[in-house]
Amino acid sequence: MEGKQFVKWFAVKQRIHETALTLYCQDRDIWVCSIGENVGREQNGKREMFQRPVLVLKRFGNGTFLGIPMTSKFSLHRTVLQISGGSFLLLSQMRLWDGRRLIRKVRRMAQREFEYIKSEVIALIKK
User: Fold this and answer.
1) How do the residues of the chain divide into helix, strand and coil, expressed in percent and rounded to 5?
2) pLDDT per residue over 61-75, tens digit each?
3) Domain membership flag for residue 1
4) Molecular function (GO) terms listed (predicted)?
5) Could you tell me the CATH number of the domain that includes residue 111?
6) Phi-psi region for residue 104, left (φ > 0), alpha (ψ -120 to 50) or beta?
Protein backbone atom coordinates (compact mmCIF):
# COMPACT_ATOMS: atom_id res chain seq x y z
CA MET A 1 0.00 0.00 0.00
CA GLU A 2 2.99 2.26 -0.49
CA GLY A 3 1.95 5.70 -1.66
CA LYS A 4 -1.71 5.35 -0.69
CA GLN A 5 -3.27 8.20 1.29
CA PHE A 6 -6.33 6.53 2.75
CA VAL A 7 -6.23 8.42 6.07
CA LYS A 8 -6.00 11.79 4.33
CA TRP A 9 -8.77 10.79 1.90
CA PHE A 10 -11.02 9.69 4.76
CA ALA A 11 -10.81 13.18 6.31
CA VAL A 12 -11.70 14.80 2.97
CA LYS A 13 -14.47 12.25 2.39
CA GLN A 14 -15.96 12.99 5.80
CA ARG A 15 -16.04 16.75 5.04
CA ILE A 16 -17.70 16.05 1.69
CA HIS A 17 -20.29 13.79 3.34
CA GLU A 18 -21.16 16.47 5.91
CA THR A 19 -21.64 19.12 3.21
CA ALA A 20 -25.28 20.12 2.97
CA LEU A 21 -24.85 21.65 -0.48
CA THR A 22 -25.28 19.30 -3.41
CA LEU A 23 -24.28 20.81 -6.73
CA TYR A 24 -26.48 19.75 -9.59
CA CYS A 25 -25.12 18.68 -12.92
CA GLN A 26 -26.64 17.80 -16.27
CA ASP A 27 -25.92 15.09 -18.79
CA ARG A 28 -22.91 16.08 -20.96
CA ASP A 29 -21.35 18.27 -18.25
CA ILE A 30 -17.70 17.83 -17.37
CA TRP A 31 -17.01 18.59 -13.71
CA VAL A 32 -13.98 18.44 -11.48
CA CYS A 33 -15.03 15.88 -8.89
CA SER A 34 -13.52 14.49 -5.66
CA ILE A 35 -13.23 10.84 -6.65
CA GLY A 36 -10.98 9.82 -3.80
CA GLU A 37 -8.09 7.51 -3.01
CA ASN A 38 -9.19 4.15 -4.28
CA VAL A 39 -8.28 0.48 -4.17
CA GLY A 40 -6.10 -1.47 -6.59
CA ARG A 41 -6.48 -0.41 -10.21
CA GLU A 42 -9.39 1.94 -9.54
CA GLN A 43 -8.64 5.48 -10.69
CA ASN A 44 -7.47 7.87 -7.95
CA GLY A 45 -8.02 11.57 -7.64
CA LYS A 46 -5.17 14.06 -7.36
CA ARG A 47 -4.22 17.05 -5.22
CA GLU A 48 -5.65 17.89 -1.81
CA MET A 49 -9.26 17.14 -2.78
CA PHE A 50 -8.41 13.87 -4.61
CA GLN A 51 -9.98 15.37 -7.70
CA ARG A 52 -10.26 14.46 -11.36
CA PRO A 53 -12.47 15.60 -14.25
CA VAL A 54 -15.57 13.46 -14.73
CA LEU A 55 -18.05 13.38 -17.60
CA VAL A 56 -21.67 13.22 -16.44
CA LEU A 57 -23.16 10.40 -18.51
CA LYS A 58 -26.57 10.34 -16.77
CA ARG A 59 -27.98 12.51 -13.98
CA PHE A 60 -30.47 10.91 -11.63
CA GLY A 61 -33.11 12.83 -9.68
CA ASN A 62 -31.79 11.99 -6.23
CA GLY A 63 -28.60 14.08 -6.41
CA THR A 64 -26.54 11.29 -7.94
CA PHE A 65 -25.13 10.74 -11.40
CA LEU A 66 -23.38 8.14 -13.51
CA GLY A 67 -19.97 9.53 -14.40
CA ILE A 68 -16.84 8.59 -16.32
CA PRO A 69 -13.48 9.76 -14.93
CA MET A 70 -11.03 11.38 -17.33
CA THR A 71 -7.27 11.39 -17.72
CA SER A 72 -4.69 13.21 -19.82
CA LYS A 73 -2.63 10.04 -20.31
CA PHE A 74 -2.84 8.36 -23.70
CA SER A 75 -3.76 4.68 -23.77
CA LEU A 76 -4.58 2.26 -26.60
CA HIS A 77 -7.20 0.26 -24.77
CA ARG A 78 -10.77 -0.51 -25.85
CA THR A 79 -12.11 1.04 -22.64
CA VAL A 80 -10.35 4.39 -23.22
CA LEU A 81 -11.87 7.01 -25.55
CA GLN A 82 -10.20 10.22 -26.65
CA ILE A 83 -12.43 13.30 -26.56
CA SER A 84 -12.08 16.84 -27.86
CA GLY A 85 -9.51 18.83 -25.95
CA GLY A 86 -7.04 15.94 -25.83
CA SER A 87 -8.40 14.17 -22.74
CA PHE A 88 -9.37 10.51 -22.47
CA LEU A 89 -12.44 8.90 -20.90
CA LEU A 90 -11.83 5.83 -18.73
CA LEU A 91 -14.94 3.82 -19.57
CA SER A 92 -13.95 0.93 -17.31
CA GLN A 93 -13.98 3.34 -14.33
CA MET A 94 -17.56 4.54 -14.85
CA ARG A 95 -19.65 4.55 -11.66
CA LEU A 96 -22.32 6.25 -9.57
CA TRP A 97 -21.27 9.47 -7.78
CA ASP A 98 -23.02 11.75 -5.29
CA GLY A 99 -23.42 15.42 -6.29
CA ARG A 100 -21.66 16.49 -3.09
CA ARG A 101 -18.41 15.33 -4.70
CA LEU A 102 -18.68 17.98 -7.44
CA ILE A 103 -16.21 20.86 -7.14
CA ARG A 104 -16.61 23.01 -10.27
CA LYS A 105 -18.04 22.76 -13.76
CA VAL A 106 -15.43 22.75 -16.51
CA ARG A 107 -17.58 22.75 -19.65
CA ARG A 108 -20.46 21.12 -21.47
CA MET A 109 -19.66 18.56 -24.15
CA ALA A 110 -21.12 18.93 -27.65
CA GLN A 111 -24.24 16.84 -28.21
CA ARG A 112 -22.79 14.96 -31.19
CA GLU A 113 -19.67 13.89 -29.30
CA PHE A 114 -21.79 12.89 -26.30
CA GLU A 115 -24.03 10.69 -28.45
CA TYR A 116 -20.94 8.94 -29.83
CA ILE A 117 -19.67 8.29 -26.29
CA LYS A 118 -23.05 6.87 -25.23
CA SER A 119 -22.98 4.50 -28.21
CA GLU A 120 -19.47 3.35 -27.24
CA VAL A 121 -20.58 2.72 -23.64
CA ILE A 122 -23.54 0.65 -24.86
CA ALA A 123 -21.28 -1.31 -27.22
CA LEU A 124 -18.85 -1.99 -24.37
CA ILE A 125 -21.63 -3.31 -22.15
CA LYS A 126 -22.98 -5.54 -24.92
CA LYS A 127 -19.60 -7.23 -25.48
Assistant:
1) 30, 30, 40
2) 888 999 999 988 877
3) no
4) DNA binding
5) 2.30.30.110
6) beta
